[in-house]
Structure formats: structure tokens, C-alpha cells
């Protein structure tokens, strides 16, 4: 079992890191919810890159954008949806295949697999 230790810092809860602690407080950096969304986007990007590599599709990855909504129906306002946009370049003849391979991301991303099934995950690719 792996362990991550968080500590109480002067500005809020911090994740210690050798080059400086990450403060998990929206006013000081990113909130825990934003970190969760970023983790989903990063994991999805790594999985997509792995799928493309294993499929022998040459690509150039540019960036990933993640947007999210929270449910106002529950007091804690949990995530209700996450939309991820992967920006990348591939040869024109591979674009349709890449669109189909995008469906595999949820199946192989452990972060997405760890989320509640109530959270809708939408993914799209923006070709450059």
C-alpha cells in the first residue's frame, strides 16, 4: 500500500514536495476538487498517449483542458461532470481511428475507474 502524507501548513493543508509544498486550498493554489479534476485529466492524457503509442500512431500532444460541474442538489456539491479536451496532432488519415480509440481511456484510466459512476466523463479531441 502506498502512502501520501498531508500536513497542516500556515496557509492550509499541504502536500509536501521536495521543491516546495503544494497548498491544497483554492485561494492559495488549487482546491482538492480541482486537484481531483486535474488528476482525471492527467491520467486520461497518459492513457491516451499509451494507447496511441501501442497502436503505432504517431502523435504530438499539445495540452489537455478539463472543465467540471458540481451538483447543487447535494449540500457537499460533489462533482457531477468532467469534460476533458485533448489537443493533439496526428496525420489526417488517423483522425477517425484516434476518435474511436478515445473510448478506451475510461476503461484503462485508474483515476476515472475510481470515481463514482454518477460523475459523467466526457472526452473529446481537438486536432491541431
UniProtKB/TrEMBL annotation:
InterPro entries: KH_dom-like_a/b (IPR015946), OsmC/Ohr_fam (IPR003718), OsmC/Ohrsf (IPR036102)
Protein's name in the database: OsmC/Ohr family protein
